[in-house]
Amino acid sequence: MKLGIFGDSFADPIDFNASDNFAWPVLLSKEYNFSKKDCYARKGTSHWWSHEQFLKNYKKYDTIIFVHTSAMRWPYLPDDETGRHWMVGEFGEIEGLVSPLLRQINPHYMNIFSEKLLNFISQNIYRSVNEICRDHGIQLINVMPFETEHAVEDFGYPVLTGLTKISLDERVVMHGTRYTIVEALEMVGDIREYSRYCHLNKTNNLTLFKLVNDLINNKKTGVIDLTAQDCWTTENDYLNAYYTTKLKEQADV
Asked: Which of 45, 212, 233, 241 has the fewest CB atoms within 10 Å around its CB?
């Protein structure tokens, strides 16, 4: 079996070869013919960007995992803006991340792209990926982390939903108090998250790996609501220690 993965930050291990990387795609690499060059997922990218990588590379693989990102992103940006597709609305005003181009065009986003158009684009990308895999005999696992306004058509492949909620439900415990990830980031002064791979703690990355591994081996179909699975954790000692240490480092400065 030759595995390829496409998508956004929910499938981007960032530092693939780091010895302590616990991202679910890295865990899959220990089981299958899959390495860094086979992971085309890139944080912050658009559905269209992922689709372009898929069209260029799908023929190399007999098994593909495609993470369908939110429709509400810049569908296309110049190559030197890759990874900034998510920066729309308030996210397009983050100091230290926004580029001069994004600062200029962000106020016009909703005047250029209606939700109806963006959902139409994502609907047809979903359809294209599924039809191509079906027509070429490629095993496909769809992952849809975000709630979507477009239809999830049945092509005989599994569709995993609800991953964003699992990510947002995770908490950080510092000195006996539970915080959301956003609150913890604000407390330590980080503008980007570096504590979790693929937006999941270590335990939940392992859980997702096991679920995906089972789908690869057993070829299930239909929509699978991940939030209905009683196997997720909201807390993780690694995550608690990471933020507690960061907070202490700040206090010592």
From this structure: 241
